[in-house]
Task: structure prediction
Amino acid sequence: MIVRSSDNAIPHCRFCGAALEHVFADLGATPLANRNLQPNEQDSERVYPLIARICSSCLLVQVDDSVPPGEIFSDYDYFSSYSSTWVEHGRRYSEAMIARFGLGSHSLVVEVGSNDGCLLKHFKGSGIEVRGIDPAANVAAQAIVEGIPTEIAFFGVRTALDMTSRGLAADLIAANNVLAHVPDINDFVRGFAVLLKPDGVVTFEFPHVLQLIDGLQFDTIYHEHFFYLSLFAVERILAAAGLRVFDVEELPTHGGSLRLYVCHKSASHEESARVGKLRAAEKHRGLHTVQGYLGFAGRIEEVKKSFLTFLEGARREGKRVAAYGAAAKGNTFLNYCGVNNADIVAVYDRNLTKQGKLTPGSHIQIKAPDSVQTDRPDFLVILPWNLVDEIRSSMRIIESWGGKFVVAVPATRQL
Result:
């Protein structure tokens, strides 16, 4: 069943309200990328138009016709702790923040979008008070079991005021890969201004839209990712809430991400030279104009053709193709390419909550990684291309029977 928005034919920007007249990418009608199915649910699956547009006024890239956030995030199949890469990323982050900002037993560290508490465990282990905030009750429950106090709520001004009324004010707020996930971005960002101490720091991490464009990372577009962010656009959003960027780091995560260091406009933190350098780089690439974003749709069609050509060749030679990683980006990719369980025999994933289910749209069975030894595929497509090294290392058993690893973005190639 295709569910369409009841909004006007031309949607409007969630930040500035301008009409969204320019299409960045149209990926067709797809199901929710993180909503894996029980085998008896496939006949009732809903699909929604997935179109990303660029605002000609504030240059914020965003999807329209989105699903209500409560339907996406109230129950969630993603648990951070299943990725050793993300556990290590959190450890390094905590050590860096503690050292840079002198955090200790007197401090409060809050994480918005705290998932299963994977990151906050590192701060708690250093004797620092922590508090998580996450709307997904099932993953928040896991964090609470692990000893991480967690507010089960969508973050915004109301949640921030509730917390400050209980005497909570943050020295550091981490918001990793969450800024893109909130439809009411104005209320969300204003919440940080409420909860943050006068000289406190917020760090936002998010995939950089410049890397999305350069790397043809269209598979990072899905309904729960409302926004695709540049420094140019985010600085406008922050300024409207009385916040400013004082430092930035470029990270390799998610194919190329930014970590912004943010504070109140009146805070004492001095702006680093890296901020101005990145502003100049984005301007050089045209991200301050609509023209800098146009032409992307035609380029991703070539990625699709490359993968379908690979599948056709494998089928012709009688080769079996499987995949690793029942993650959202992989599901977007499979649905855009129009493949299903006749093309790919299984998707392997460590996440126990996904095993035994079917991938959305493509309806491929999700299995435990050790099932690969029974299936013995000739090719294993690594769908989360940002975790290639981790997955390749854990699945080297396929090489014992001549199996090959394959990555499909930005073009299909054997590793």
In short: The longest helix spans residues 296-316.
